[in-house]
């Protein structure tokens, strides 16, 4: 009995059969959806404002609570997908928008928009963040092509160094032109300002999800390396460009609307890949659902840990994500010690 690892097909007596873990609609996945639905209900009714005891409680529910919960779900899916696609393209599980400098480039794009437009609209801020995210991600990939040593630790270190440089440049420009206060909310990602009229552009993420699902098989082949992808008839450079563009749009929208959300794209894709492998098409629904659940749990904690005040959700995400990042680093080093 032989197994085909890439396609997820097990051959027995010449009869192909899909692995169970490549199926999408399984009992665990349905349980995960139910859990996310429960978390969304908890999120809708979590907050300091008494919805039942106020005359405008119903209005406030639809003005603030519903948009916030929708923003949480869309943002969780976006950042998790971005991390999954980046990990496939770079063939490295420690890569995501935070560890490649992409999110820092988005912040620089926001700052550049504020320099040229004193009171930019949300569309202008999104455009600047998307363009600079794309440029920064492509620069990161160009650096990787120049680096001969491509170990699992070197790649995120390069991204972190690039991000640190861009962050320093953004801080210097902000101080020089006295514009740090304009983007200070970006450095602390929070869903507190979300309400009707300030989150609707996040619905574009649904389109990004559909496009990633359409290109899923080609992105998976690109994750096998340039030589393998080319031999299988895939234009490697084109699919990497498309993947980078989709990542940039998702990260740019989130950066402009919400702010910096560290390590979300690192935690969720790694958990899913450890359990299910690296098939993007079958993993994408799982990544979206678990991304939604993760960020909603962090947001509920941020709203209740020091009630009636609120902790930025990026603080909770950063703490959890840093711990997961350390665990992944230790897992990468363990095989070397065993040798």
Q: Would you summarize the structure shown here?
A:
The protein has helices spanning 27-44, 57-90, 102-116, 122-146, 154-176, 180-187, 204-214, 216-222, 226-231, 236-257, 264-276, 280-304, 313-338; strands at residues 2-4, 9-12, 15-18. With 339 residues, the protein is mainly alpha-helical. A hairpin with a 2-residue loop joins strand 2 (9-12) and strand 3 (15-18).
Description:
With 339 residues, this protein is mainly alpha-helical. It has a single domain, classed as ABC transporter involved in vitamin B12 uptake, BtuC (Orthogonal Bundle), CATH 1.10.3470.10. 69% of the residues lie in helices and 3% in strands. The chain has helices spanning 27-44, 57-90, 102-116, 122-146, 154-176, 180-187, 204-214, 216-222, 226-231, 236-257, 264-276, 280-304, 313-338; strands spanning 2-4, 9-12, 15-18. It has a three-stranded antiparallel sheet, with no helix packed on it. A hairpin with a 4-residue loop joins β1 (2-4) and β2. α3 runs parallel beside α5. The protein starts with a strand and ends with a helix. One of its GO terms (biological process) is siderophore-iron import into cell.
First-last Cα distance: 30 Å
Helix content: 55-70%
Q: Which residue ranges are poorly predicted, with pLDDT under 50 across at least 5 consecutive positions?
A: 1-21
Regarding CATH, which class?
Answer: Mainly Alpha
Q: How many individual helices?
A: 13
Q: Could you give a short account of the major beta sheet?
A: 3 strands, antiparallel
CATH homologous superfamily grouping: ABC transporter involved in vitamin B12 uptake, BtuC
CA radius of gyration? 21 Å
CATH 2nd-level architecture: Orthogonal Bundle
Shape: globular
Q: How would you state the average pLDDT, rounded?
A: 81
SSE pattern: EEEHHHHHHHHHHHHH
Strand percentage lies at under 5%
CATH fold-level name: ABC transporter involved in vitamin B12 uptake, BtuC
Total separate domains: 1
In which order are the strands of the major sheet placed? 1-2-3
Number of beta strands: 3
The helix/strand class is: mainly alpha
Membrane topology: Multi-pass membrane protein
InterPro entries: ABC_BtuC-like (IPR037294), ABC_transptr_permease_BtuC (IPR000522)
Pfam family, one: FecCD
Organism: Paenibacillus apis
């Amino acid at each position: 009995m032989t197994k085909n690892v890439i396609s997820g097909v097990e051959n027995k007596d010449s009869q192909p059969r899909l692995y169970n873990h490549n199926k999408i609609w399984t009992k665990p996945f349905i349980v995960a959806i139910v859990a996310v639905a429960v978390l969304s209900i908890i999120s809708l009714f979590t907050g300091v404002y008494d919805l039942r005891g106020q005359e405008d409680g119903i209005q406030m529910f639809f003005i603030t609570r519903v948009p916030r919960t929708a923003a949480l779900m869309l943002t969780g899916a976006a950042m998790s997908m971005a991390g999954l696609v980046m990990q496939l393209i770079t063939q490295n599980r420690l890569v995501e928008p935070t560890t490649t400098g992409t999110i820092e480039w988005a912040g620089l794009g926001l700052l550049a928009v504020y320099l040229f437009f004193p009171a930019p609209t949300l569309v202008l801020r999104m455009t600047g963040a998307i363009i600079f995210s794309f440029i920064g991600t492509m620069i990161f990939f160009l650096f990787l092509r120049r680096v001969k040593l491509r170990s699992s630790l070197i790649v995120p270190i390069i991204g972190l160094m690039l991000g640190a440089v861009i962050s320093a440049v953004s801080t210097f420009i902000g101080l020089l032109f006295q514009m740090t206060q304009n983007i200070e909310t970006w450095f602390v990602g929070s869903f507190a300002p979300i309400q009707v009229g300030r989150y609707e552009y996040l619905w574009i993420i649904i389109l990004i999800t559909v496009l990633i699902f359409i290109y899923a098989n080609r992105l998976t082949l690109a994750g096998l390396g340039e030589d393998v992808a080319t031999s299988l008839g895939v234009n490697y450079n084109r699919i990497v460009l498309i993947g980078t563009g989709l990542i940039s749009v998702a990260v740019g929208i989130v950066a402009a609307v919400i702010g910096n959300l560290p390590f979300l794209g690192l935690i969720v894709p790694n958990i899913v890949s450890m359990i299910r492998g690296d098939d993007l098409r079958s993993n994408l629904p799982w990544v979206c659902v678990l991304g939604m659940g993760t960020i909603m749990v962090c947001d509920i904690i941020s709203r209740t840990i020091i009630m009636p005040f609120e902790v930025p959700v990026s603080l909770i995400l950063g703490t959890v994500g840093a711990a997961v990042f350390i665990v992944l680093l230790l897992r990468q080093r363990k095989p070397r010690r065993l040798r």
